[in-house]
Structure formats: C-alpha cells, structure tokens
C-alpha cells in the first residue's frame, strides 16, 4: 500500500472542485485513459483583473491523481495568471504534505494541465515544425518533458524519471534513451541503471494481479456503482467479468482497456484482459 498523507486521503475521499466550470475561459487536457491517467482542467478568469475566479477538474486516475488535481484547483483560485504560471509540481506535492515518490507523476500531470490551460487562454500553439520527439512510446513521454522534469526536480536516475513521468516503466525499450538524456543533462560518467525487471513466477503473477485489482481497480469501479470479478488467469491472459453497473455501461470497452493498461503497467507488459 502507498503511504498517503492525511491531506491526500482527505482530498481523495472529499475532493474539492470536481466537475467543469460553466463556459470556461481556459481548458487544459493532458494524459489519456489508455495511458492510465487523464486530467481536464477548466478555469474561469476575470478579464479585468486577470485573476482565476473558479477552477474545476475531471480526472481518470488513482487516489493521488484526484488529490493532486483537487490541490491544484485550490492553489489556483484567486491567483493571477502570472502567479498561476509559477506553480510547479513541487508546489502541488507540498500542498498535499508530500506524495509517495512513485506517485509524483500525478503532480506533474497537474502542472501540465495548468500549462495547457494557460496556453489555451493565450491562444498559444506549438508550430508544427517543433513537434516533440517521443522517447517513451508506452506512456507517450517526450524528450522535452523528460528534460524539464529532470532539471526542475533534480532527478538523476531512470527510476526517478519513471516515478515522475512513467517513462521507462513499461516495456523498458526507452531506458537507454532516458539514460542518454540524463547523462547529457548532468554530464554524469555513469547514470545509475534501473533495477532489472524480475521475472515473476506464475503464482507471484496471479497474486500481483489480484492485488492490483483489489487495491487499484475495484475501489474505483465500486465508487461509481460498478465492480468486477477475476475469473481466471492463463499465462498472460486475465479473464474478468464486469459486475453491477459496469455490466450495462456503454463505456465497458474503455473500462476493460484501462484495466489492461493498469495491469501492464504494474504487473507485466504482456498482460491481455478479456471480459466475459
Ligand atoms: S517505450 Fe518507454 S517503457 Fe516502453
């Protein structure tokens, strides 16, 4: 289990500013359900004073994603855009009294949604020729993001980059590129290598799948009146049955996809989920 602060628990159980501002002046959307986390931030801005008078969020993510998004909206209210632009992921984590290091990517997602919202308000658009180089295809993380997060948070290892951006936490193909970027930034002779991914036995794999379903997935489904049951595990195939409200939910396909993505992320890249 993650060690959450009281503030994280409180904002997860009683999130503030959930939803969408009516006729928003600024909208920032980051992440994707396929990658496991997504956040939509909407802002109402007083044109006279340039102050943020209202901020709301919608997120698909874990407890810390909800708490981080809620913290961000609390930090934003009453601030001018200039002040808001200075908010960093560390400010979000500090507001929460800290986040488990493996969950720091939630605070980074908040900072990115804020930047996207401010850019949308200012009408900023990236010119087509400055398309970002994607380093981690599993989590759609660009070189620019890795460099920025590494510098702003003083990260020197691939594991830290994974904690803050998820990059490198899936198939691992991008790890050499991440190491090269870190080496370039910090001019280190040898950037520490991440721990080898241990091969799980079948029993360990099943136990881990059960644990992730119980800890990360079922509570979220149950919160919306849904549920699931683990039917069987055959090699990398995980058979589940959607239960309760999930049975008739038109978004059932997306739910199964996101469950598969979460299991790929936390158990093994070759997991395939089949709903029966
Ligand atoms: S490409 Fe980065 S973890 Fe797969």
Q: Count the beta strands.
A: 8
**Class from helix and strand fractions:** alpha+beta
- Cα shape: globular
Mean pLDDT: 86
Bound molecules: FE2/S2 (inorganic) cluster
- How are helices and strands ordered from N to C? HEEEHHHHEEHHHHEEHE
Helix content: 40-55%
Strand order of the largest sheet: 1-2-3
> Over all CA atoms, what is the radius of gyration?
19 Å
How large is the count of helical segments? 10
Largest sheet: 3 strands, antiparallel
Q: How much strand content do the residues show? A: 15-25%
- Cα(first) to Cα(last) distance is 29 Å
Low-pLDDT segments, ≥5 res: none
How would you characterize the overall build of this protein?
- The chain is an alpha+beta fold and 276 residues long.
- Helix content is 44%, strand content 19%.
- The protein has ten helices and eight strands.
- It has helices at residues 6-13, 63-76, 81-85, 89-95, 104-122, 143-153, 158-165, 175-186, 202-223, 252-266, and strands at residues 26-32, 37-46, 51-60, 134-136, 141-142, 226-234, 237-244, 272-275.
- The chain has a three-stranded antiparallel beta sheet with strand order 1-2-3. The protein has a three-stranded mixed beta sheet with strand order 6-7-8, covered by helices on one side. A two-stranded antiparallel ribbon has the order 4-5.
- Helix 1 crosses helix 2 (63-76), helix 6 packs across helix 7 (158-165) and helix 9 (202-223) crosses helix 10 (252-266).
- The longest helix is centred in the last third of the chain and has 22 residues, at 202-223.
- The chain is globular and about 60 Å long.
- It starts with 5 loop residues before the first helix and ends with a strand.
- 38% of the residues are buried.
- The structure holds FE2/S2 (inorganic) cluster.
- Residues 136-138, 167-174 line the site of FE2/S2 (inorganic) cluster.
- FE2/S2 (inorganic) cluster is lined by residues 136-138, 167-174.
């Amino acid at each position: 289990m993650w060690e959450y602060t009281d503030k994280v628990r409180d904002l997860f159980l009683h999130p503030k500013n959930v939803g969408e501002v009516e006729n928003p002046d600024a909208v920032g959307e980051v992440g994707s359900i396929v990658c496991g986390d997504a956040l939509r931030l909407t802002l109402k801005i007083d044109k006279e004073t340039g102050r943020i008078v209202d901020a709301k969020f919608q997120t698909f993510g874990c407890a810390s994603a909800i708490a981080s998004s809620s913290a961000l909206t609390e930090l934003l209210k009453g601030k001018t855009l200039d002040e808001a632009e200075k908010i960093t992921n560390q400010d979000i984590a500090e507001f929460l009294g800290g986040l488990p290091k493996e969950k720091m990517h939630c605070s980074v997602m908040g900072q990115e949604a804020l930047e996207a919202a401010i850019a949308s308000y200012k009408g900023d658009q990236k010119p087509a020729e400055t398309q970002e180089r994607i380093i981690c295809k599993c989590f759609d993380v660009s070189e620019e993001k890795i460099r920025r997060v590494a510098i702003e948070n003083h990260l020197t290892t691939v594991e830290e980059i994974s904690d803050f951006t998820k990059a490198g936490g899936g198939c691992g193909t991008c790890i050499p590129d991440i190491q090269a970027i870190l080496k370039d930034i910090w001019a280190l002779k040898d950037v520490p290598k991440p721990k080898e991914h241990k091969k799980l036995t079948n029993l360990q794999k099943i136990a881990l799948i059960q644990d992730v379903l119980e800890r990360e997935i079922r509570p979220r489904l149950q919160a919306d009146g849904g549920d699931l049951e683990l039917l069987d595990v055959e090699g990398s195939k995980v058979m589940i049955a959607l239960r309760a409200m999930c049975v008739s939910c038109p978004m059932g396909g997306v739910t199964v996809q996101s469950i598969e993505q979460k299991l790929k992320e936390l158990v093994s890249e070759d997991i395939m989920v089949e709903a029966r």
